[in-house]
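Page 42, continued from yesterday. The earlier attempt failed because a stray header line got pasted into the input along with the sequence. Redoing it now with the clean sequence only.
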Amino acid sequence: MAPELSTFEARRRANVVNNAKLLKDSAEVAAKMRRATAPPPRAAAPKKRKAAEPAPRTRVMPTRQSARLAGASSDTNGTDLKLEDIPAELKPPEPKRVRTSGDLQLSSLQVEGQRWSSTGALASFVQGAQPGVRTFTEDDIKDTSDSKLKDLRKEMSDLKLYEGWVPNDIKITPERVYALTFHPIQDKPIILAGDKKGTLGFFDASQETPQQSDEDDEDVDIPLPQIGAFEVHSRTISSIKIPMLDPNSVLTSSYDSSIRCLDLQSQVSRQLWEPDDDTVDIGISCIDVSPETKDVIVFSTLDGNLGRLDRRSKEKADMWSLSDNKIGGFSLHPLLPHLVATASLDRTLKIWDLRMIKGKGELRHPSLLGEHQSRLSVSHASWSRGGYLATSSYDDTVKVYNMSDAMKWKAGQDLSDEQMKPVHAIPHNNQTGRWVTILKPQWQSNPADGVEKFAIANMNRFVDIYDTEGKQLGQLDGEGITAVPAVAEFHPTLNWLAGGTGSGKLCLWM
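This time it went through. C-alpha cells are written below.
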C-alpha cells in the first residue's frame, strides 16, 4: 500500500503539472507568431536560357514583274519607274531645310499658284505715309466743270513756299511744334508757335533775306533767320490764341495746368488761371476765344472738363465735367459763342449750349444739344464762321457737318440724329504715330475772299485745303520739306498758310 502524500507534496505536484501546461501553451503561441511574421518564401530563380544565334539580315528586293505581261511597250527602256517602287534605303536623302534669317520682304516670298496670289487680307493693315506721293494732282485741279471751283483750286495751288530760307533753316522752336497761329496783322506775316517743352517762338517773314549767290559754292555761309523764343511754360504749349479785337495779347495754354497772357507791348507774361491747389495737375488741352467777347476764355482739360474764365473778373472760373475721357479739342461758334463743339477720346462729337446750365453743385453742366459717334476717337472739332463743323478722327476720315441753321436754335434745343450726321466724310490718313503731332483741321476764321476753307496736314508731307462741301481746293508742297507740317493753320483773313513740324521747323506758303 502506497504511503499517503502529504498536503505539501500534493500541492507541489499540481504546480509541476500546471507549469508544464503553461510552457506547452506558450510554445504553441510563439510558434504561431513566428509563422505569422516570417517573410514569404523566395521564388526559385529561373534558369538562364541560352541565347539563340541571330539570323542573318537579308535585303528585301521588289518582286520582279513582267513588263510584257503588264502590257507595257517594249521601247520604255525602264524609264517609267515610279518613286514609290524604289526601296527606302536606295532613295537619295532629302536635303536639310536651312533656317532663314534676316529681314524678309513678303513680296519675294509669295507662294506660287493662283490660289495663294491674293494680298487683300493684308491691305487693311498697310498704313503710314508715302512721303512725296501726291494725293491731289494737276488732273484733279482741272477735273471739274465748275469754273469757280477751278479758279479756287488754281489760286490755292499758286501759293508758293517761302523762299527766304529753306524750312530746315527756320527752326521756330527747339522741340516739336504742338500749337501754331498767325498774328492777325496784315502788313507782314508773323507766325507764333509753341513746342513740347513750353517754348513760345516768333518768326517775322518780312525780315531781310540773304542774297542768293550766283556761284554754286557749297561753302557760302548763309546767315540764319532771326527768331525769338521764350520759355513761358514748363510743359507742352497746347494752344495759342490772339483775340481779333486785342492783337497785343497772346493767350497760351499748357499741360502745366496754366493759362497765360503775353502782352506784346509790355513784354510781360501774366498768369490768368491755375488750379487753386498747387499739388493738383490739370493739363489744359485747348483754349478758344470768341471774336465778340475777347475777355472770356473757354478751355478744356485732359480729364474731360470744360472751363470758362473771364479775365476781367476776380471770380473763380466755372468748371463743368463733360466727359470721363480726355477732350482733345473744341471750338466756339465764331458768331454764336454760346455754342461749343467738343471732340473727345470717347469717340464723340458733342454740341453744348452755354446759355442753359443744368444740374447742381459738381453735377452742373451746359445743356447737351446733340452728339455724333465715330468708329474711333475724335481728335478735334473746328467751327467755321458760316456754321460748318470739321472734325478729324482716327478712323482715317475728316468729317464736315452742316450746322448753318444754328442761328435758329433755341436754348437747350435737342438736335436729331439726322441733324448730327456729317454731310461729307473725306478719306484722310490721320495715323500720326508717336513722333508727329495729332492732325487737326482749322478753318480760316474770317477769309477776305469770302470762301470758307480749312487746312489739315497730310502725312505725305503736304498740307491739304478743303471747302465746306468737302471738295479739295489744293495740296501745298515745296522743295526742302523733310517732315510732316503737322500743325497747319491759315492766316485769319489772308491766304497765307503755315505748318510746324516734329523738329520745330516752319513751312510757310504765301
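Notes: The chain has four helices and 27 strands.
Reminder to self: strip header lines before submitting.
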